[in-house]
Design a protein that fits this description.
Elements: E1 2-6, E2 15-20, E3 27-33, H1 37-47, H2 52-59, H3 71-86
Antiparallel strand pairs: 1-2, 2-3
Helix pairs in contact: 2-3
């Protein structure tokens, strides 16, 4: 398993912790520190077992209010960074 810690920018979450499969293509777990607790726990459950590329493409560019990013958008950046480390 590959573990990756990401510091998001421009959102309420302070950290995103990601566990990927050994080959870096499948999301095993995602955990957020800070942010909207209930929503981010739900997002974490929804992405488990899915491919990094599928989730990153789906959530990239998602915004929150007047912000140009969101926790989901930041997670997509974190997933791609973690995947890159695995390759």
């Amino acid at each position: 398993m590959l573990h990756y810690d990401f510091t998001p920018h421009g959102v309420c979450a302070r950290a995103i912790h990601i566990d990927l499969s050994d080959d870096g293509t499948i999301i095993e777990d995602v955990a957020f520190e800070g942010g909207c607790n209930g929503n981010l726990k739900a997002v974490s459950r929804l992405v488990q077992g899915r491919s990094v590329d599928e989730v990153a493409e789906l959530l990239a560019g998602n915004t929150c209010g007047r912000r140009t990013t969101s926790c989901a958008d930041q997670m997509s950046k974190a997933l791609l960074a973690a995947e890159k480390l695995a390759s």
